Amino acid sequence: MARRVIAEADVVLHDALVHPAVLALARPDAEILFAGKRGDRASTTQDEINHTLLWRARQGRRVARLKGGDPFVFGRGAEEALFLAEHGVDFEIVPGVSAALGATAFAGIPLTHRDHASSVAFVTSRTGSDDPAGGAEALRAVAHAGTLVIYMGLARIDEDLRTLVEAGRDPATPAAVISCGTHPEQVVVTGTLGNLAEQLRGRSVPSPAITVVGGVVGLRSSLRWWDRPGLCGRTVVIGRAADERRSASALLEREGAVPVEIAMIRLVAPTDAAPFDRSLGALADGAYDAVAFTSGNAVRAVFDALRARSRDARVFGRSRVVAVGPETAAALAAAGIVADAVPSEHRGAAVVASVDGLFVDGLAGRRVLLPRAEVAGADLPDGLRARGAVVDDVAVYRNAGPDAAAVSALRDLVARGGADAMLLTAGSVARNLVDALGHADALRVAKVFAAIGPSTAEAAAEAGIPVAVRASVYTVAGLVDALRDHFRTTTPPEDP
Asked: Fewer CB within 10 Å: N-end or C-end of the chain?
């Protein structure tokens, strides 16, 4: 429902805590308005927000008001809806996930448990009145709830915790502060009602944050899942081709990492396109016994060229097709070709053996098309020729380096101290990195470099880039798994 409302809106008025991915659901032509509303920072006033909603609605425009969490839980959603109701403007309410539910779940702290809490109280020590004692009175009223969740209390946490102790709550009661809950930057500081304020001193714990008090906080040590050792909270650079699928980002986000995509390769036409054109003609004429694809980029280049000629997968006819690695096989399948062989090793000998194995009488006299990058190693075509094959080693694309924007992004990373890791998805990513920044700065882009396969690791070593992580399964998913397992050996500081 929320997705539909955002997609249909003419105007989107959002608070600071709304994630950019949510705003991306809006129509390209929608008016996006920022309202602020974060902690004690300067924001649009509530009266200005109310009148903005009213004015846009009276213009006949559909308005989506996006708030962090749930609009009816300490979100002033009721105030805004009442204002619209008073002025005869229709509205609908889309419930959200309040911080008390989302942040605690991501911290591994259940709000209720049969052995620890049968009641929950949500409270804020801030009130909308001029009575400075109002917040303390609200805290005292719910001091003995099984679980107590305090919103917007980080700035006055010393006073709030002291108020609860003065109201009779045991100072030994477990307590926690959850900052930036559900985000990769999530920080959880645990302690007790009596010492939590001291635990926070000297720690970087930004707003927004909630405070949780109750026996359920003690379950975090067993239920912690989001910010466990691994990729959570780590910044990972994805060195990819400019038009490559963005599957790595989704996989990293599931692990709680912060992906930074930088196009390290631009795929352009080969310097001399004539051999490519001739090979496509020969393919359509049935001249090739086998076609061996070594990358998804080669698959896309060939099929883009076929579509430009109003041709499709039928041109492969009698040709046997080899895909090096599962990612290349998936690219072929998307184009309508099921590979006859998929060698898991990217090394030339393994690929040669796979091609040879397609024919009972071997490769002698067989004509093989090898469509690939303009700059590529000689071991594969040499190995095929050694077995008697006639090889057309054809450049179907050329790897160009990163553009000015990508180089600028890399330099910004170096200036900020570098990312936690960088994914090298091809050997040319490592070469282009060094070419763009020089060897010294290239090493500062990330603390750890991870290579998708042996050939990529070898190319990185030749470029002077040390590879600490190698995928055992030569796919993006395999690379992310390997990087996660690597970081699991580096345990982050435990909660105090």
From this structure: N
